[in-house]
């Protein structure tokens, strides 16, 4: 007997593939134009400013095709599968990488570039999509988390003293009295107790 949808199940919200594709294509076309301008600037022949489009226009086209194919396939896959996971990114990256291989004009390049980019993007998305490590839980206070880690790894002072000895800021109980005694024995200087009043 079904009591309704599972509350833990994530509800998928469809994406607007056309709008997302248009935005991504605009961004990647601008990036391609920048790359084309850099290529045009670094060329040895003087081809003029229009060389950005006449000589290196293929770079702009590849960037635009990569962005459009990635975003459209990613959104279409998510809408068809009704899941938002790393497989959508993998499929989009395969078609995006294939655009580079398409420029080469061979089937191995088409499949190779697509597979390479699919593996890189898919693994990156699967592992959290972050180069700085795991994502922190926004519901956990960072100060409390660090305090817990310190207490969790804190060792008893007796163990620390047994391993390292006293000094360097590590002092056991009765350290001041032992220090006064050592100074008195070695240098014949009688230091006052730490809490003794000083006479001016």
From TrEMBL:
- GO process annotations (BP): mitochondrial electron transport, NADH to ubiquinone
Lipid bilayer topology: Multi-pass membrane protein
State the source organism's domain of life: Eukaryota
Annotated localization: Mitochondrion inner membrane
UniProt key word Chloroplast:
no
InterPro entries cross-referenced by the UniProt entry:
NDUFA11
GO terms for cellular component: mitochondrial inner membrane; respiratory chain complex I
Quick check: keyword Mitochondrion in the entry?
yes
Entry keywords, A to Z: Membrane, Mitochondrion, Mitochondrion inner membrane, Transmembrane, Transmembrane helix
Q: Which PANTHER family match?
A: NADH DEHYDROGENASE [UBIQUINONE] 1 ALPHA SUBCOMPLEX SUBUNIT 11 (PTHR21382:SF1), NADH-UBIQUINONE OXIDOREDUCTASE SUBUNIT (PTHR21382)
According to UniProt, the name of this protein is: NADH-ubiquinone oxidoreductase 213 kDa subunit
């Amino acid at each position: 007997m079904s009591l309704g949808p599972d509350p833990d199940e994530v509800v998928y919200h469809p994406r607007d593939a056309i709008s997302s594709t248009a935005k991504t294509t605009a961004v990647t076309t601008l990036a391609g134009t920048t790359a084309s301008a850099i290529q045009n600037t670094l060329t040895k022949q003087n081809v003029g400013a229009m060389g950005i489009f006449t000589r290196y226009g293929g770079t702009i086209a590849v960037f635009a095709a990569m962005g459009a194919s990635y975003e459209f396939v990613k959104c279409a896959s998510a809408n068809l599968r009704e899941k938002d996971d790393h497989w959508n990114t993998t499929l989009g990256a395969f078609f995006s990488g294939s655009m580079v291989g398409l420029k080469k004009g061979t089937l191995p390049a088409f499949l190779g570039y697509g597979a390479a980019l699919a593996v890189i993007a898919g693994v990156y998305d699967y592992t959290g999509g972050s180069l700085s490590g795991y994502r922190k839980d926004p519901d956990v206070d960072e100060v409390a988390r660090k305090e817990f880690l310190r207490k969790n790894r804190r060792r008893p002072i007796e163990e620390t003293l047994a391993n390292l000895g006293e000094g360097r800021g590590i002092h056991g109980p009765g350290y001041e009295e032992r220090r006064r005694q050592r100074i008195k024995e070695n240098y014949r200087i009688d230091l006052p107790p730490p809490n003794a009043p000083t006479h001016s």
